[in-house]
Amino acid sequence: SFFDDSITTRMTGTEFSLTLPGIDANKAEQIAQNIYKDFIALIETYTLKPQDVNINIGIYRYKQNVGVSELLSRTDQALSQAKASEDRQIFVSQENLQETKTKNEWRSILQEALDNFNFKLKSWDCVDLDTKQINHKVMTFMIENEKERCFYGDFIAPAIDLGFSTKIYMHILETLFTNDDQNHNPYTYSIRLSNEFLKDASSFIYMENLFKKYAKRSKSELIFEISNSFCANHTLIASGYATLFKEYGFDLCINSYTSEFSDLTYLRTLSPKMLKADISFLLDLTPESINSLHVIANSLGIDLVATTVKTKEEVQRLESINIKTIQGPVTEEI
Question: What's the longest Cα–Cα distance across the chain?
Fold first, then answer.
């Protein structure tokens, strides 16, 4: 058995490591899936609420040229990515060309970015295929200074792990409302709010005060994106935010949508303007399932948006299932 030479180590009160010599990435992911299913079974056995239990598994493939210190950093980074992910609990680390940073290095980078306002807003287009016009611009942010250039996907996991995410989002939202270029631009903008930010009780009060201060001054239309998993598992909190957005004239978008949740009453409760789903999910749906999704969306007045669209062939396939709003690299060619 491949478990004969395995090593299990307790890292902290809630974190464990499992070292499996001679296992390839596919087998490791299968094992991780089985471990995850066993935890779900335990949750049901002890009648716990799934939304109150966080199960995250990070996987990293050891290589001989990686030292012990870097190995620990990379496995820790894989776990941080799993914790930061809003639509999957298991993260398989891909080989990263850039040097892996330690927690202390990330702490220094993030603190310096906050102290010196080194976060820069960026955007990409979400396009209407019928009109070939921009439906809205999706906002993201990065760290940029003379020494560092880190994209959102690089730093958000360590930011969450180190407790920086709420401070970062508060800074970004303030910047969003006070950005003169954006306020003089007629586009609608959307920005994704992380699960960790939304779970922080101080975030709601902060956003309410922010809206009171800036909402009437802002000339841009804003859409706030919240993950489907958060809306389904924390509907009460999500509903509070949806009501807050509506009160100040902003809209809600549910992103990372999947059909794994059989109870879709939360869609009616939240009344989102848009529902965003990855193209792979949409194209994998059966004709019956995509028709049902259209029926639900049309009955609630929700616009369906396909994300991570990369090729014109994918655009054609989306048009064949009546998905007419897209975002992703291909929008640069439209």
Answer: 65
Which pLDDT tens digits describe the chain residue by residue (334 residues)? 456 667 888 887 788 888 877 666 778 888 888 888 888 888 888 888 776 778 888 888 776 566 667 777 777 777 777 777 766 677 666 554 345 688 899 999 999 999 999 999 999 999 999 999 999 999 999 999 888 889 888 888 789 888 999 999 999 999 888 876 655 566 899 999 998 899 999 999 999 999 999 877 666 689 999 999 889 889 999 999 999 999 999 999 999 998 655 567 899 999 999 999 999 999 999 999 999 999 999 999 999 999 999 999 999 999 999 999 999 999 998 8
Q: Are 232 and 252 in contact (CB under 8 A)?
A: no
CA dist., res. 215 & res. 213, Å (int): 6
Q: Which two tokens stand for residue 291?
A: 């028709």
C-beta of residue 154 within 8 angstroms of C-beta of residue 160: no
Angle of the 165-178 helix axis to the 152-161 helix axis, nearest 10: 130
DSSP per-residue string spanning 107-153: HHHHHHHHHHT-EEEEEEEEEETTTTEEEEEEEEEEEESSS-EE-HH
Residue 169 and residue 162: Cα distance in Å, rounded? 14
Whether the model clears a pTM of 0.70, i.e. scores above it, the answer is: yes
φ, ψ (nearest 5 deg) of residue 252: -110, 140
Please name the residues in contact with 140: beta carbons below 8 A apart, sequence gap of 6 or more.
121, 122, 123, 124, 152, 191, 192
